[in-house]
Amino acid sequence: MNVLQKVVVVLMVVLAGGATVSFAQTDTSVTGRASLGPASEKRIADTVILTKKQKDSILRANHNPRKATRRSAILPGWGQAYNREYWKIPVVYGVLAIPTVAYIYNQNYYKKTKFAFEARLKEQNGDSSDVALIDPELSGLGLGSLQNYRNSFRRDRDYSILWFLLAWGLQVVDATVFGHLRQFNISSDLSMQVHPQFNPVNKMPSLSLSLNLREPARKAKTLAR
After folding, report:
1. Dihedral through CA 153, CA 156, CA 160, CA 162, nearest 10?
2. Residue 195 DSSP SS3
3. Which residues contact residue 156 at a Cβ distance below 8 angstroms, ignoring those fewer than 6 apart?
4. What are the tens digits of pLDDT across the range 58-108?
5. What is the pLDDT of residue 59?
6. What's the maximum distance between 2 C-alpha atoms anywhere in the chain?
7. Domain boundaries, the chain
8. Which of 137, 158, 160, 162 is the most buried (most CB within 10 A)?
9. Comparing C-alpha atoms, which of 217, 133, 219 is closest to residue 181?
10. pLDDT digits (tens, 9 = 90+) for 129-179
11. 3-state percent breakdown (helix, strand, coil) of the chain, nearest 5
12. pLDDT value at position 60?
């Protein structure tokens, strides 16, 4: 056997071995896919990559308005945060800050005018020991004026407490209402159609109006196992 024949024999052996390896790999891949079985294929099919819209739908379906109510009742703005309406939190605290500042202002001047009124009343009875302690802003006022200012500041202080409670209650109502509205989903293809009809009772033509809305979102099922 010459050199050329030896080279031809070696090439045939190499080609035959490569074909055997390729056939074995193909057979292994087919066998591997077949070994998955229906259960494995079902698990792969159930594993879904969620888009942002699908995640929002799941969050909306799992949203509980009662949690928003309880949280806003405990801490102002907590219910709005649960509803993902973060822009309302500074608004809530801004509204609550108004009666809070009013309460501090009126309570401060109520104490001053009350003390000044009592000091002037003692002065009329011959005891002027507290007159020097009267606030300089109120030193020039008489007994009647001090009494009127005292009553006015006390009334405004009580009103500020009522306004604070009202503002707190309104933010609870806001969290509750928008917590329920978060579950109410209107279809993006909202449509209204008008159809002509014939009324057989009075034998007159009529119109029918139909408005298509999407049903409220239900509890989402588990998409991945």
Report:
1. 130
2. strand
3. 102, 106
4. 555 577 889 989 999 999 999 999 999 999 999 999 999 999 999 999 999
5. 55
6. 146
7. 1-30, 53-181
8. 160
9. 217
10. 888 888 998 888 888 999 999 999 999 999 999 999 999 999 999 999 988
11. 65, 10, 25
12. 58
Which tokens sit at 101? Answer: 């500042």
3-state secondary structure of 174: helix
Q: In this structure, what token pair is assigned to residue 79?
A: 């219910």
- Over its C-alpha atoms, the chain yields an Rg (Å, rounded) of 41
Q: pTM, whole model, 2 decimals?
A: 0.57
- Paired tokens of 168: 């707190």
Sign of CA dihedral 202, 203, 206, 208: positive
pLDDT exceeds 50 at position 31: no
Query: ∠ at Cα 185 (182, 186), nearest 5°?
Result: 140
For residue 18 the two structure tokens come to 């490569």
Query: Where is 193: in which H helix or E strand?
Result: strand 191-199
Helices and strands of the chain, counted as H and E runs = 6, 2
Instruction: Retrieve residue 150's tokens.
Output: 């005292």
Q: In a 3-state reduction of DSSP, which class is residue 11? A: helix
Q: List C-alpha distances in Å: 204 to 193, 194, 207, 209.
A: 20, 16, 10, 17
Q: Please tell me the distance from the alpha carbon of residue 60 to that of residue 82, in angstroms, as a whole number.
A: 11
Q: 139-144: which pairs have CB atoms within 8 A and are 24 or more residues apart? A: 141/116, 143/117
